[in-house]
Each structure stands twice: as C-alpha cells, then as structure tokens.
Specification:
The chain is mainly β and about 400 residues long. Helix content is about 5%, strand content about 60%.
C-alpha cells in the first residue's frame, strides 16, 4: 500500500509543475500588462512609447473640452507605470494612467488649448503616440508581425484612427475662453455687529444694546475668464443685496420713579443694502471625468457697499409707563459707505452639456470685514454663498 501511494504521488507532482510552468503562457493569451511609458524628443516632435506585453486591443478618442487624447487598452490586468507624468512640451501637459475598468487601462494625454496634431502607431512592443504642431497627421501604421496573424483563439489588436489635423480646430476657434452668469444667495455665519450705547433720559442713564444680523441675501454674478491647461482663471462682478436684521434692547429709566428701569425690545424694520463684489479667482482641477470637473481655488477682490445702523428714534410713552407702554414711532438710520478687500475660496463642479455649454455649481466662502466710521467698529460679513449658473465657452 505504501509503494502504491509513492508511485501515484510523482505523476501528481509533475502535473502540478507543468501547470505552474504553463500559467504565464495562459495568462498572456488572456490579458496583457502595461509595462512602461517612455518619452523621446525628436526635433519638433514628441514621441511617447507605451510598452505592452501580451495581446490587447486599443481604442483612441479625442475629447474637446478640455482637450484630451484618451487611449483605452484591454484586456489589461496589471499597470506598472506611474499614475501621473508631467510633460509641458509640444502641446502635451501631462499623462494620467489608471485602471478605468477591471480589465481596461486608460491613458489620458491632457493637451494645451493650442491642440497639437498627433498619430497613434502600433509597434512590436506596444504603441507609439507622436505629437507635433506642423504638417499633416500621419496615417496609422500597423507593422506585420507573426503574432498578429489572425488567430480564432484571441482577438486581433485593432486601433481606432485618430482625428486628422484638419479636424482639430485652431487655437482661436477652440473653447479657450468662457462667459458665465450665475445666481445664488449669501448665508451668514453669525452676528455681524454687536455694541452698546448710553444716553441721558429723565436724569438717569439709558442703555441700548444693538445687534445687527443678516438674513438670506440674494446674489447675481457675471464672469469672464480663460482656461490654461487644467487651471481656470477669471474675473467676476457680483451684485448682492445685504439684508440686515437689526435688534435693539433698551434699558430705559422710568419717567417718575428712580431706579425703576424698564427693559424694552425694539425691532426696526429690516433694511436691504445693494452691494458690489469685484473679484479675481484661480481654480485648479481636483478631479475630472469626460463630463464633469471638480475644481477649487482662492479668490481675492473688493467689496463696495453700505452698512446701516440706528442713529436716532422717537419714543412714545403712555400711562402707566410700563415696558409694554413704550413704543417707537420713527427710526433714523446712519449709512456707512465702505470699500473693503474680500478674501475667499471657491469649490466648483462643472458639468459639460456640450463643447460650448456647461452647468456650474459653486460653494464659496467669502470674508469681508469693513470698518464702520459711525461706531468705529468692524462688521463681520463672513458668509457662505452657494450659487448655480450657466457657462458659455468660446
């Protein structure tokens, strides 16, 4: 019995070794590896070589806004190259690589607004992508190799032809600039201004505690700017209506009794102040797909506006002169005009409907801290401003 087990064990062990030896060959018939990306400058041309090991298919497509050349390789199960390579040469800004699908590797060439011509050529080791600014796009060359003879057991590598140079718009015709209109509202994060005043009344001291808050403040903006690679620069002019909500608590002496102060809440009508923001901004791409781009960046500008505080009011009293018998018949407001720097940040989601049109959604944090001459204090106008808009590219 022991001899029989020994004789059966050797064939099983040899079979196991044969399977291990055949595994790389089996894997190469079903998938490929993206092994290397190399660059070579040849005069006024940039050659990018993709070294691919195994059988694969390739699809190349051009996306116009922002301009990108996208190459999908399948089936690719292993990527052995860096996910990001900065180029900045011959109209190529950078190369991004990732596993687009479980069996598909995607290589994206981010191009400048002055889009270069390009060609995709299949080589013995993989693909060669060439970029240049002059001449016509070369036809795709597919060298004849023994391992490219059609085999019913695997898919024959195929290449989708790139766009010809005459099909790519010139730099002046591309969606290089943008014009956007947007609307939203300011949401203020706290009390704008708190202070206390005193004055003489009935031979005693009266006290006013004044608090100024802000309600929902509509905002309307127009922007113009320019794309530069993966960065968006622009200038914006915003008209917004600052809705102030004043609240005054008065500690008033009694007209006949000493040390018998009455606490009265005075609520003037809300006031609305038209204001202007003029700002410059720069947005940097954080994430991008074929349709959407998420961007963020700083903004800096100038706010011109006014802030209103109660300057005077008319009190009316009646017997028996309790707090409930005090009323105000008229308010007089003092207007502080100011010009103040603003600072902030923008988070923007851009959804492209077409090459010329996009929907925008922004969330902004804006800090303005103007000084008010009437009370010699600063008003805290820190607020969040969600806006939506429509952008035209030209």
């Amino acid at each position: 019995m022991k001899l029989l087990k020994h004789r059966m064990g050797r064939p099983i062990f040899l079979l196991f070794l044969m399977i291990l030896a055949a595994a790389p060959s089996l894997r190469s018939q079903t998938s490929a590896d993206l092994k290397e990306i190399s660059l070579q400058k040849d005069g006024d041309r940039l050659n990018v070589s993709l070294k691919i090991e195994g059988a694969y298919t390739v699809e190349a497509s051009f996306l116009p806004s922002p301009p990108r050349l996208v190459i999908d390789l399948a089936p690719i199960t292993r990527i052995q190259v860096l996910p990001y390579t900065q180029i900045d040469d011959i109209g190529v800004l950078d190369i991004r690589t990732g596993q687009f699908k479980p069996d598909t590797a995607r290589v994206v060439f981010d191009l400048s607004r002055n889009v270069p011509a390009y060609s995709v050529t299949q080589t013995a080791d993989g693909l060669k992508i060439t970029f240049w600014f002059e001449g016509e796009v070369q036809p795709i060359e597919v060298p004849v190799k023994d391992d490219m003879i059609p085999d019913p057991r695997r898919t024959t590598p195929a290449v989708t032809a790139p766009a010809a140079a005459s099909q790519i718009p010139a730099d002046g015709e591309r969606a290089n600039y943008f014009l956007a209109v947007r609307a939203g509202a300011g949401l203020f994060l706290g009390a704008d201004l708190l202070f206390e005043k005193t004055f003489d009344m009935y031979g005693e001291t009266a006290t006013l505690e004044e608090a100024y808050g802000s309600g929902l403040s509509p905002a309307f903006e127009i922007q113009i700017g320019k794309y530069s690679g993966r960065t968006k620069f622009g200038f914006g002019a915003t008209l917004w209506f600052h809705n102030q909500k004043p609240l005054i608590t008065a500690d008033l002496p009694h007209p006949f009794l000493m040390n018998a102060n009455r606490s009265v809440e005075l609520e003037p009508l809300d006031v609305r102040n038209p204001m202007w923001n003029f700002s410059l901004f720069a947005l940097f791409t954080l994430s991008e797909t074929d349709k959407m781009t998420l961007m963020a960046g700083p903004m800096l500008g100038l706010t011109k506006g006014k802030f209103q505080t109660v300057d005077d009011f008319t009190l009316e009293e009646k017997s028996p002169f309790s707090a409930a018998d005090v009323s105000v018949s008229e308010y007089v407001f003092y207007e502080d005009l100011y010009s103040e720097l603003l600072f902030g940040g923008i988070f923007q989601l851009e959804y492209r409907l077409s090459d010329k049109l996009a929907l925008l959604g922004d969330v902004r944090v804006i800090y303005v801290n103007p000084i008010l001459a009437s009370v010699n204090l600063r008003a805290n106008l820190l607020h969040v401003q969600p806006v939506i808009g429509l952008q035209f590219n030209f």
